[in-house]
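If your schedule permits, I should be very grateful for your opinion on a structural question. I have a record of one protein: its chain in single-letter code and its fold written as discrete structure tokens. Kindly check, if you would, that the fold set down in the tokens agrees with what the sequence suggests. I remain grateful for any guidance, and I place the record below:

***
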Amino acid sequence: MPEKKGPLAGVRILDLTTFIFGPYATQTLGDLGADVIKVEGPDGDQQRAVAKAAKNKEMGAVFMAINRNKRSVALDLKTDAGRARLHALAKGAHVFIHNVRADAAERLGFDYETIAGLNPGIVYVHCVGYGSDGPYAGRQAFDDLVQAASGAADLLPRVDGNEDMRLLPSYVADKVSSLHAVYAVLAALFHRERSGEGQFVEVPMLESFTSFLMVEHLNGKTFEPPVTHMGYSPALNEDRKPVKTKDGHIVVQSPSRAASAKFMELGGNALGYDDPRFANAPDAKAKVAAYYAMIREAALAHTTEEWMKLGVEHRIPIMRANTLDETLTDPHLEAVKFFELREHHSEGQWRAMKPPVKFAKTPASIRRDPPRIGEDGPEIDWLD
């Protein structure tokens, strides 16, 4: 039986992105079947060197996590020979994507006008920090800077009362913006398929991440004049967190008063909302505090696994709260084989995360392990 190919099989992508914003996008496109050619300088993607967790300094953990399903060719674009080689590859590509500043791209010979002159039908995607129409255009951008400008650093102070602005403990702006780049590529390819036209596409981090963040947090200032404050109160509730069980933690997100009462009953509180702590609370704020105190008290009555079973039995949305380490042995993730141990030709065993989206006829897959710098150069030579 012939091997099924992903939905983007036959699409060739020249990938000049580095760090996380960009490589996470191109890996996703590679998982979907695209032939991603990672064009690196002689020293490789700068993310390779961020290798505090590594077996070899060029193959750090984060690099491994976002550079599978790619072939690597090393080109020195400061030389005429390197630029000529890149131009030859561009003639046969469908997508050209990079996150280099515009002035540097022009200096190195891969600005839009140059690449489109070689291949008018190409989808040229520029991943930038800030949109080219605004005053921040051309400034350096990293995840921390974009989190700061988007308002994300103001979220944790609204939850815990600590007035210090803090960043979310994940490179979430990089990853979210990468997913915006994925749909941008797909939409432009769809237009190209229908019309034959290539085009220039700009994916700005600040605008992408702010649009993601403000879905709920624009809140009352959705309207003018504002109807209430910014910041979505249910999301910013300090009690929106896991509760302790006998042996771990769970999260309960009750869809109804009846489900909450049943949870309390299962946890030994038959009174539920008739409990004097709740019934006699002087105001709404006190009632909310009493409610969460009763939920925390009830949760201690059973183990995490017992609550998982009771949740199914009584149709109460309950989920175990894993530590980072526990995700590796989560029963569901184990059953779907989400974490896959693979054998890398230079790094030995490594743990990959399988593509999460399922296609019935064109499945996404891991076909290539993350490459060493330029290792696919000989294989790629025939493309021009």
Q: What stands out?
A: The longest strand covers residues 35-40.
